[in-house]
Design a protein that fits this description.
The strands form four sheets. Strands 1, 2, 3, 4, 5, 16, 17 and 18 form an eight-stranded mixed sheet that branches. The protein has two domains: 105 residues, Urease, subunit C, domain 1 (Roll); 288 residues, Metal-dependent hydrolases (TIM Barrel, Alpha-Beta Barrel), CATH 3.20.20.140. The chain is globular, with a radius of gyration of 21 Å. By secondary structure, the protein is an alpha/beta fold. It binds zinc ion. The site of zinc ion has 5 residues, from loops.
């Protein structure tokens, strides 16, 4: 199977007129376009080769920070009162919408009662269509700390260890710990320091011992430093960075997953759309500093990955383009932002066979109609999405095919932009 004459964006570079050959689940070769006769533009699910002149190919996008069981409605915590089987079915629909949006990998950073573990299993076993999921189980937070309504409260190093171990026992790929207060929990402040450095270190060490990832919700300055000193791999949010925090991150190779889209959407929709006032007030207060911290970290050379906190109010799972656009507002070039959402995010997740497109890598491929470096909006409407070499989505009418063809597996998902329409 060959994709011919594409513009390839991978590994921080752009190459014009390239052919990609897919064999099984992997990329077999990436070569300059030759004189291949294009055999078909009509049936990407059956053709041996597809002429994609004028189209752009990027690696599958990676979102480091989602909540697959939160509904992206005006008050996602309230959505968790639905029966768990219903939450999982909603999650399945979102995971499919993400795949169809070209997001082929996502890390859940806060599930509910381990229900997301079953969703991950079904997708990763290959019988349910959806984005490849990594999960962290229950967030670990101090008693009354940020996210206590859906996480596990832990106090002291022993409890941090115990519940990190328990998450791992239940199938976690990552241990997430709350170093500070946050926006979505009433009564806590983003600047508050929460779990101590010693508690964070105890939990993260269990993850490291088991070969798992670590992430810390860290918004206030001293909490960020605690998390970085405790050995966390990805700082989530990083709202109030100072020079010392940035230098610590540089020294330790810590990644930043800024989730700039989350407060942006809360403020954009606001109380008029039913978002609780405390969330809107806190988001308004932190937004400007958040973007400045991101810019400072980027300029200083911190590893910038891409996480959007999808599932928070009006921040839908199938939209990573808004986060990528915000990263450009924060100073990255479109090429750098796409590289952050592919190569650097794969590095942050220690997924060496994803994030770039070269021989031997997994064939997670997104075909875009046009050039995302000229207009990032084209990220929102992929023409084709391949996951591990299999066509997972074809936009109806794409590539001259006007039949109501539905890609295997699943059905196309329309974009949800209306405030009331928050299902995905
Ligand atoms: Zn989150």
């Amino acid at each position: 199977m060959k994709l011919l004459n594409v513009r390839l964006i991978s590994d921080g570079e752009v190459r014009e007129r390239v052919d990609l050959e897919i064999e099984g689940t992997q990329i077999k070769s990436v070569t300059p376009s030759g004189e291949h006769a294009a055999t078909s533009t009509e049936n990407p699910d059956t053709a041996d080769s597809i002429d994609l002149a004028g189209k752009t190919v990027i690696p599958g996008l990676i979102n480091l920070h989602v909540h697959i069981l939160l509904d992206a409605g005006n008050n996602p915590a309230a959505g968790l009162s639905e029966p768990i089987p219903y939450l999982v079915l909603q999650g399945a629909r979102r995971a499919q919408a993400m795949l169809e949006a070209g997001i082929t990998t996502a890390r859940d950073l806060g599930g509910y009662e381990f229900a997301e573990m079953s969703l991950k299993r079904a997708i990763n076993e290959g019988w349910l269509p959806g984005t490849r999921l990594l999960t962290s189980g229950k967030v670990l937070t101090m008693t009354g700390g940020h996210g206590h309504f859906f996480g596990q409260e832990v106090d002291g190093e022993d409890e941090a260890r115990k519940y990190a171990r328990y998450n791992i026992k239940m199938g976690a790929d990552c241990i997430k710990m709350m170093a500070t207060g946050g926006v979505m929990t009433a009564g806590v402040d983003p600047n508050n320091t929460q779990l101590s450095e010693a508690e964070l270190r105890a939990g993260f060490q269990e993850a490291i011992n088991a070969g798992k990832l670590t992430a810390s919700h860290a918004q206030g300055t001293s909490g960020i430093k605690n998390a970085v000193r405790a050995g966390v791999r990805t700082v989530e949010h990083g709202i109030f960075l100072d020079d010392e925090a940035i230098n610590l991150m540089l020294e330790r190779g810590t990644f930043l997953s800024a989730t700039l889209a989350a407060p942006k959407m809360i403020v954009a929709y606001g109380e008029a759309a039913g978002v609780p006032k405390y969330m809107v007030d806190k988001s308004r207060r932190i937004m400007e500093h958040h973007l400045k911290s991101f810019s400072d970290a980027f300029k200083a050379g911190v590893n910038i990955a891409c996480g959007s906190d999808a599932g928070t109010p009006f921040n839908p799972h199938a939209d990573l383009a808004t986060e990528i656009q915000m990263m450009v507002v924060g100073g990255m070039s479109p090429l750098q932002a796409i590289t952050a959402a592919t190569r650097t995010s794969a590095e942050a997740l220690m997924l060496g066979d994803l994030g770039t497109l070269s021989a031997g890598k997994l064939a997670d491929i997104v075909v875009l109609d046009g050039d995302p470096l000229a207009d990032l909006e084209v990220l929102r409407q992929p023409l084709l999405v391949y996951k591990e070499g299999k066509l997972a989505f074809k936009r109806p009418g794409a590539l001259g095919d006007h039949s109501p063809l539905v890609a295997q597996p699943g059905t196309p998902v329309t974009e949800h932009t209306h405030p009331q329409d928050h299902f995905c």
